[in-house]
Write a structure and sequence with these properties.
3 strands
Length: about 110
């Protein structure tokens, strides 16, 4: 097992860095991206196993970033429903003005 935190490695997509920096960077990625990324030793080109990376992270006290997906933090995009509701509730004269403004803007 490679445990020298100052060993030079290459993190796929990020370049060369020390092993500790590579493990810290990898642990900040989302779980899907973390599973796709790879760490290679510069001296021999060998890829470090995911289990080894996780073991080193826990040994050095580096916690992985949790996968947070909360409806409050990431609202669903339902813009068509919002616009449809605004059009239904809008009075006819304001719709005509909005249409004419849209035509003028489109011509320019």
């Amino acid at each position: 097992m490679t445990s020298d935190p100052e060993e030079q490695v290459r993190l796929q997509g990020f370049g060369e860095m020390t092993l500790r920096t590579a493990v810290a960077t990898l642990m900040q990625l989302a779980p899907r991206e973390r599973s796709e990324a790879a760490i290679f030793r510069v001296r021999d080109g060998v890829r470090l196993a995911q289990s080894e990376v996780v073991e080193l992270a826990s040994h050095w006290g580096i916690d992985p970033t949790p996968n947070v997906r909360s409806p409050r933090l990431v609202p669903e995009q339902h813009w068509p429903d919002i616009v449809r509701g605004m059009v239904r509730e809008a009075p006819l004269p304001s719709l005509m003005v909005a249409f004419l403004v849209g035509v003028l803007v489109a011509r320019r």
